[in-house]
Each structure stands twice: as structure tokens, then as C-alpha cells.
Design brief:
- The complex is a heterodimer of chains A (215) and B (466).
- Chain A has 215 residues and is an alpha/beta fold.
- Chain A folds into two domains: 163 residues, Aconitase, domain 4; 27 residues.
- Chain A is built from eight helices and seven strands; from the N terminus they run βααβαβαβαβββααα.
- In chain A, strands 4-3-2-1-5-6-7 form a seven-stranded mixed β-sheet.
- In chain A, β3, α4 and β4 form a beta-alpha-beta unit.
- The longest helix of chain A has 14 residues.
- Chain A is globular, with a radius of gyration of 20 Å.
- By secondary structure, chain B is an alpha/beta fold.
- In chain B, α2 crosses α5, α6 packs parallel to α8 and α12 runs parallel beside α15.
- Chain B starts with 5 loop residues before the first helix and ends in a 9-residue tail after the last helix.
- The chains are: A alpha/beta (215), B alpha/beta (466).
- The interface between A and B is large, with 63 and 83 residues.
- The complex binds iron/sulfur cluster.
- The site of iron/sulfur cluster has 12 residues of chain B, from loops.
Chain lengths: 215, 466
């Protein structure tokens, strides 16, 4: 996993609550067996006028100019501001892969669906929760100022605004360590292989029916 | 404070290691796999040169992409490649597999309990959010992302943080013709799609005890739509009778041992929940969603709501977007809303009792002439077989419905079963998101009986008056 320490990035506001993962990456793109290449289809139905299918030349497709990601001032953004319950619905990790492939490394909102925020963590995308008032303020500021950027510091758990004001944020300490060091969670778990084996032995004695092989 | 909730008990039973930082390494008893969320996980194994920890704890089945008609030839090459990739991966890694042409094949969440692969007391995961369905068995079952699929394959565990406990106590008796689906939609309407975020919900109370096992699955299935990690229901005699005799269920002496253990799978009487809610089942009516989020619900007696009456600006904007997408006017009685298509199926409502309820409404009747297509898609090959033995297929076909092969089908339209742009559907599935059933398609979530009744009438009708 790519480490996350600091990010200085252009911010784009997506002012809608309950954005679901079906919208973030529509199902027709879930047929891919790869982890990459989803970026051009992020928010596909909101971004393009036509219906997207896998394998298309996306650069030739008609855009919905009014959609926020298509506006010239937000090109190159790497921080996404969102509203409540972002990433609800389907567990598809493709949603995070698409955001990452598009260039987002950080998403800031008042709340996220649980599987979505877990998926962010596994892919080095920072999902930061801020209270609703702070979110409102950020939405107002980014809309009022072209080229609005934020600086995110995971180590210090703070976001700095251009005027120097700091916004502290809470972050899961275990995930923070993994992200700062870019450590793959599976290798951490495998260090405890003996404990897993011991657990299995003891459970096999106590609850053998849980170990019926399905083969 | 030794009293534990059902969730506490299952969590504690599965701790391999407490990491001391708020997370625990949790053992996973059963891992279900399907073609859409597994390929990248298997690829990860290859890239890192890792092996599955315990292949025989997994069970794979193709369901999301599969055609429900003309299965011999999968015309879409991208879908075909994904299905072939699952075939290759399970063979390569020696994962137990139910193939497309096996009569047990079906939607993963229907197949798991049906086969007894999912049992009370287990922790069950799958790269699919509706894994919560299995909570009906008194199991802790939840959806995971593909990175976690890989983690479970390699270690048979997950690094997790415990959720908070919520109990929803459903008192009283459901009125006649009101179902677990209506209950699920009603509860989501009350607490919202983020109402359960951070919680595991235990459903309890008289109305829950009264539900059949299949209805409990319908309810737990939609716990994810309330934002919860999962939903679960304590084990009772119905649970044990349901599991008994299933192909992978324990037998003989081991069965006795298992039952003794399962009988303890309930919250202690004095267990404390972080949040408790009470819902009166007698308040629930046949329910329909009007918008693009499962919390946008009204009863069949009501009219489409008016965003101008909504005080919260973010919600108001959400309602306006939803009404525009759904092409609905505030104040329209939901009964006057005409539909184009009907879908009876999905992991929410494709088990035998669902098909019986729909067939009871359709028997001896005909689809309204304005209905372009009405699909009945059984949840598994075994559900299909059972329905055919009961003659339900004939009831549907005579009424003008199409009787299909099992799979996810028009729940999400990854195969050819889709809504066209602007088409309006009465659907027994679980998500009414924009484009969920096809780009531009408009979904109204209802119970199987309500869907069948709408197919006959051509618009929504109150099943209680049929
Ligand atoms: S039926 Fe629908 S909700 Fe259920 S697993 Fe399939 S796609 Fe997901």
C-alpha cells in the first residue's frame, strides 16, 4: 500500500448527501478483473451525457459540463468534500479504486458508510470525518474561492487552510500507523500465524461443527 | 457487568488476539465468494505469492453476472471473462465451488443458508454488503471489501473494530398482508440510511419471533440499508428447525452438541445496548419507496411527499433530486403511479415463501396490458425446483410473467435483465439508487405480494384490499 503522510491538494465540493457506491462506479464497470483503470468512469452517469460501457474511449464522450468534476476550476483535484453517509450501499471496493485512479487521495465529510471507509483505509485513501458545521464552512469557502487548496497532515492529524487556520481531526490510531508507513495489513496479521493456529485448535475441540469442510 | 448481547458473545468467541489499540484479530468461520468482488483478491494472492489459509472454509458461487435465460451462451465477453476467472481461481486454489449448472447455484445469500454452509454462531463474511442476510440465523455476518476478501483468504481472520450494540424491539403483531419487507422499509424510513452506522442491530420482540426464518432473512438482508454493520436475530426453535437436515449442517452427536451451544445464542436478559428503539408492528402498512434512497418510503395509503415541507436543507435538496430523477410530483397518491416493469427476485425476496406470496396474488389473473415485462427470478436452483413442484411457475407464466433461472438479475442489471431509461419498476429488491436496475431506470421497492399486485393492476395497489 502507498504510504500517506501529507497531501497538499486542490479541493472539489460534491454537495449531495447519501451518495451511493452505485453512483460512484456503476455496475457495468464491475466486470473488470483488474484494480486499475476505473478513474475515467468515476461518477460515470453524472459525468457524461451518454451511457458508458467498459472498454470505451472515454475522451470522446460528451460531458455534462455542469457536473462539478467537469468544471475547469476543479481539474486536478485530489481532495473531495462530501456530505452525509458518503459511499453507502454496495460494498464494491471498485468505488475507492475509481476515486484513487481519478486522483483523489483524501475525502472529507461528516460521515461515511462503514464498508466504504474501511475500503478507503485499505487503499491509502484518507477518509476524514469533520463535524457538520466545519463541513458547511469548507463547502462555502471552496465554492467562493477558485483554486482553493487544503493541506492534510496525517501525522499531526490536522488540516491547514490557506489562511493558516488549523482543523484537527480524529483518526483511527491503528489505521494511522499502517497508512503512515504504507504497511500491508496482511503481512501484519501473518506475524500472528501461531496465534491463529492455536485459536483454531482450541475452537476445533469446542465447536467442531464450525470446521466442517465444504469440499 | 458480565451480561452480554448476542453480538458481544459472538465477537468474544472469535477473538484470536486483542491488539490493544481498539482493534482485534477476529476469526472468520465462513467465507462466501462470487465472481464480481473476488478476482482482484485472488490476483493479490498470486502477486504476493501467498496461499489460502483454509480453502475448505470458503464456498464460491457465480450469481451477479449470470444470465437468467439462455445460459449456455454468455454473449457479453466481459461478463464471460469474469465468470471464467472465478472458475480458474477456485480450481487453482482448491476452493469449494457451486458451478453455474449445478442445481444448487443461486444468489450467494440465498444459497449459503439453504445449504447449511451458514450456521448459527458463525462469523460469516462475503465481498457483498447483503451478507447481513445470514444474521437471521443468529450468526454475525457482514459484507467486506475486496482487500478484506484477500485478507480472509490468506489469514482466515480480519482486523476489526467492535461496533456498538443497537436493539430494535418490534412489538405487537404485523397486520394481515404486511410482511418483513414492509417492516424493513418502515424501519429504514424511521432511522434513515445512516441510522445504523457504527452499530450491529439485533432485532427482537414478539413481531420478530413471529416471523418465519425466510422473513427474518428479508429483514436482516436490509440492515445494511439502514447503514448498520449487520443485523441479527437470536436463535430459537425456528432457527434450529430451519438448519436441521441441511446438506452442510452437523449430524448425529455433533448436531446435539451444536444445538446445545446454539441455544445460548441470545442476548442476556440484563444486557445493555448502546441504543434501544421500539417499533410497534401494528403501525406498519404495505410500504413503497418513492425516491432514490431506501429511506424515502411511504405507506400505500400516502401521497408523494413535498420537499417544501422538509425543514433540513440537505434533505430537501435530496428530495428534489430524487423527485426529478423519479419523475414524480409531490401530492400524487402512490396508488396512482403507473409502472412499466416488475421484478420479483433478489437476495431480499426470492425464497420460496416470497414466490408463494406473489403467486397467491397472480393466480388466475393476467398482467395489466401496459406492463412491458415482469420477471420472476428464483433465488436458487433449489428454490426454482421447489416452486415448480408446487406449480408456481405455471401460475406466473399463465399470468404473463417470465419464469427465469436463478441469479441477481434485475436487482442490479449486470446481466441483460435491465430497466431502460425512464422505465418505472415495482421491484422486490433492496436498492432504489439512481441507475441501479439500469441507466435511467426508476425503482420502487416493495414486497413480493405488492409487486405482483402492481403487475396485475399496472399501478401500485394496496394488497390488503385484494
Ligand atoms: S441480489 Fe442484488 S443485492 Fe443481492 S447479492 Fe445480488 S446484486 Fe447484491
Amino acid at each position: 500500500m502507498e504510504a500517506f503522510t501529507q497531501l497538499d491538494g486542490l479541493v472539489v465540493p460534491l454537495d449531495r448527501a447519501n451518495v451511493d457506491t452505485d453512483v460512484i462506479i456503476p455496475k457495468q464497470f464491475l466486470k473488470s478483473i483488474k484494480r486499475t483503470g476505473f478513474g475515467p468512469n468515476l461518477f460515470d452517469a453524472w459525468r457524461y451525457r451518454d451511457h458508458g460501457e467498459p472498454g470505451q474511449d472515454n475522451s470522446a464522450r460528451p460531458l455534462r459540463e455542469e457536473f462539478i468534476l467537469n468544471q475547469p476550476r476543479y481539474q486536478g483535484a485530489s481532495i473531495l468534500l462530501v456530505r452525509e453517509n458518503f459511499g453507502c450501499g454496495s460494498s464494491r471496493e471498485h468505488a475507492v479504486w475509481a476515486m484513487q485512479d481519478y486522483g483523489f487521495r483524501c475525502v472529507i465529510g461528516p460521515s461515511f458508510a462503514e464498508i466504504f471507509s474501511s475500503n478507503c483505509g485499505k487503499n491509502g485513501v484518507l477518509a476524514i470525518r469533520l463535524d457538520a458545521n466545519t463541513m458547511d464552512k469548507l463547502f462555502d469557502e471552496v465554492e467562493a474561492n477558485t483554486g482553493y487548496r487544503l493541506h492534510v497532515d496525517l501525522e499531526r492529524q490536522q488540516i491547514s487552510r490557506v489562511n493558516g487556520e488549523l482543523i484537527p481531526f480524529d483518526f483511527d490510531p491503528a489505521l494511522k500507523q499502517l497508512l503512515l508507513n504504507g504497511i500491508d495489513e496482511i503481512s501484519v496479521t501473518l506475524q500472528h500465524s501461531d496465534e491463529i493456529r492455536a485459536y483454531e485448535q482450541q475452537r476445533l475441540q469446542k465447536t467442531p461443527w464450525l470446521f466442517t469442510d465444504l469440499a | 457487568m458480565n451480561a452480554k448481547t448476542l453480538y458481544d458473545k459472538l465477537w468474544h468467541d472469535h477473538i484470536v488476539r486483542d491488539n490493544g489499540d481498539g482493534t482485534c484479530l477476529i476469526y472468520i468461520d465462513r467465507h462466501l465468494l462470487h465472481e464480481v468482488t473476488s478476482p482482484q483478491a485472488f490476483e493479490g494472492l498470486k502477486l504476493e505469492n501467498r496461499q489460502p489459509w483454509r480453502s475448505a472454509a470458503s464456498l464460491a458461487v457465480p450469481d451477479h453476472n449470470v444470465p437468467t435465460i439462455n445460459r449456455q451462451h454468455i454473449s457479453d465477453p466481459v461478463s464471460r471473462l469474469q465468470l471464467e476467472t472465478l472458475d480458474d481461481n477456485v480450481r487453482h486454489w482448491n476452493i469449494p465451488y457451486i458451478k453455474l449448472f449445478d442445481e444448487r447455484q443461486g444468489i450467494v445469500h440465498v444459497m449459503g443458508p439453504e445449504q447449511g454452509a451458514c450456521l448459527p454462531g458463525m462469523i460469516i463474511v462475503c465481498g457483498d454488503s447483503h451478507t447481513t442476510t445470514n444474521g437471521a440465523l443468529g450468526a454475525l455476518a457482514f459484507g467486506i471489501g475486496t482487500s478484506e476478501v484477500e485478507h480472509v483468504l490468506v489469514t482466515q481472520t480480519l482486523q476489526l473494530k467492535k461496533s456498538a450494540n443497537m436493539r430494535i424491539n418490534v412489538t405487537g403483531c404485523l397486520p394481515a398482508a404486511v410482511t418483513a419487507k414492509d417492516m424493513a422499509l418502515y424501519i429504514i424510513g424511521k432511522i434513515g440510511t445512516a441510522g445504523g452506522t457504527g452499530y450491529v442491530i439485533e432485532f427482537s420482540g414478539d413481531a420478530i419471533s413471529d416471523l418465519s426464518m425466510e422473513s427474518r432473512m428479508t429483514l436482516c438482508n436490509m440492515a445494511i440499508e439502514a447503514g448498520a454493520r449487520t443485523g441479527m436475530i437470536a436463535v430459537d426453535d425456528k432457527t434450529i428447525n430451519y438448519v436441521k437436515g441441511r446438506p452442510f449442517a452437523p449430524t448425529g452427536e455433533m448436531w446435539q452438541q451444536a444445538v446445545a451451544n446454539w441455544q445460548t445464542l441470545r442476548s442476556d436478559a440484563d444486557a445493555v445496548f448502546d441504543l434501544e428503539l421500539t417499533v410497534d408492528a401494528t403501525d406498519i402498512r404495505p410500504t413503497v419507496t418513492w425516491g432514490t434512497s431506501p429511506e424515502m418510503v411511504i405507506s400505500i395509503e400516502e401521497c408523494i411527499p413535498d420537499p417544501d415541507q422538509e425543514p433540513d436543507p440537505v434533505k430537501r435538496e435530496g428530495m428534489r433530486n430524487a423527485l426529478a430523477y423519479m419523475a414524480l410530483e409531490p401530492g400524487t397518491p402512490i396508488c396512482d403511479v403507473k409502472i412499466d416493469k416488475v421484478f420479483i427476485g433478489s437476495c431480499t425476496n426470492s425464497r420460496i415463501e416470497d414466490l408463494r406470496a406473489a403467486a397467491d396474488i397472480a393466480r388466475g389473473k393476467k398482467l395489466a396490458p401496459t406492463i412491458k415485462e415482469a420477471l420472476v427470478v428464483p433465488g436458487s436452483g433449489l428454490v426454482k425446483k421447489q416452486a415448480e413442484q408446487e406449480g408456481l411457475d405455471k401460475v406466473f407464466i399463465e399470468a404473463g410473467f417470465q419464469w427465469r433461472e436463478p441469479g441477481c438479475s434485475m436487482c442490479l442489471g449486470m446481466n441483460d435483465d435491465r430497466l431502460g431509461a425512464g422505465e418505472r419498476c415495482a421491484s422486490t429488491s433492496n436498492r432504489n439508487f439512481e441507475g441501479r436496475q439500469g441507466p435511467g431506470g426508476r425503482t420502487h421497492l416493495v414486497s413480493p405480494a405488492m409487486a405482483a399486485a402492481a403487475a396485475i393492476a399496472g399501478h401500485f395497489v394496496d394488497v390488503r384490499h385484494i
